[in-house]
Fold each of these.
Amino acid sequence: MVLFRRFKVRKGERGFLFRDREYVRALGPGVTWVLDPLRRARVDVSALRDVFVRHPELDVLVRAKAFGEEALVLDLADRQRALVRVDGRTAAVLGPGLHVLWTAERRVEAEVFDARALRLEREDLAPVLAAPGAREALEAVTVEAGHVGLLFRDGRHEATLAPGTYAFWKGAGTLRVKPVDLREQALDVTGQEILTADKVTLRMNAVVAFKVADPLASVTASEDARQALYREAQLALRAVVGTRELDALLADKDGVAGALASLVRARAAGLGLAVTALGIRDVILPGEMKELLNRVTEAKKAAEAALITRREETAAMRSQANTAKVLEGNPALLRLRELETLERVAGKARLNVVLGERGGLLESVVKLV
């Protein structure tokens, strides 16, 4: 029968001797002989360079002070978390529980946090989020450019987050980050059938350009701010168009758009939104009304054309009358006009001019020369 058993612990290791499942003592590097005829002893070995001590009876070893001054013991409460750095590099994020880290061969640092603070603020957030245990202990949130993030904790608004990446401790309450788009957006209000004051049914399409002015109000004042703005634009269209007759509406679209914008802006402010522009894109008339308006327009244009023609004829006749008066008072000028006429005719065909005796046309021409 073998009475003694031989156990060897290598350099860079530590051993823990158990007998009948009870801890006896720690073993340093070297060979140890243990009296164990019944084979009830065992030695569990842990490498110092592994840093993290993993043992099913870790609490027993800690209570027995089996690690001496060679390890860092962290006993984290439910509200505590720890960030471990080994040789200056992020190694792990630890949650609640008992943790032991060897410090004999590596430079080990641990920073303990209170998770009730909710947010982990560090410049080196990226390596922390990539470290082992980070997914279980931290919730990462990224707010994109052009957005803000509304942070709610247990249903209460805690903060408004600018674009960037954030990390929050899990288990510190119900956490929710609501992204809000601050960029300008366009809302099409299409296919609105509205009855004008003179009982004409129109179909109108409008467009509303808006952006979020108050992020918190935009998510708390209504279930869906965009849908609420669409509804307010519909009501405003009916309120403005329904009080105007068709002719006034078609003649002053800009005025109608201005009245709409003023009304919608006031209602959008209560939703946390700012309307930057509003315009009427289309006014669609019924087929018979469109044909009637085309005929009216055609008649107006024909009347305008006839009026212009009459004005031109009147002006021409007035000019001819004035010319006649001038020629009547100056016979020589009349003769000169006759010669100009003859010259134009001669340029197009052969022309023989026979002048009468002296005292007639010849004498007048000589006088002119």
Amino acid sequence: MPFVNVKIAGTATVEEKQQIIAGMTEVLYSVLNKKPETTYVVIEEHDTDNWGVGGESLTVRRARHSG
């Protein structure tokens, strides 16, 4: 029983989440021959204030790079 945990900074739409779930399931099937009906995919959304890279939060980083 495969279990995939996808963590993203920010939010995704319902449609985007469905694409992620379908894509992860397909990868496990095509690469490892894991049955889609027993593959679990969990998506965790994290506020960009709680995710950092290069010593700064993604909120700060994105604001700096967007303007």
Amino acid sequence: MHTGKPPHLKHFDYTGFHRYSLTFCTDQRRAIFHDERVVELVLSQISRAGNEREFAVFAYCFMPDHLHLLIHGESEAADCKQFITL
């Protein structure tokens, strides 16, 4: 199982009008997304982060132990690294 953060591209600042495909795994790959309340809570946090960091969420897919997101920066200031850490 991969743990930790994947490496970032050294010559790319992850800001602006870019699109990203992101995957977030649960802690120790626990299957917590079977619970609709957990999914609703995570979606509300993703929405909050998108609004705060100027990202549109185009698509998402919850699996039992991970989440896939497709997002798009809506301004020059949209910072994917900050979106991820919110």
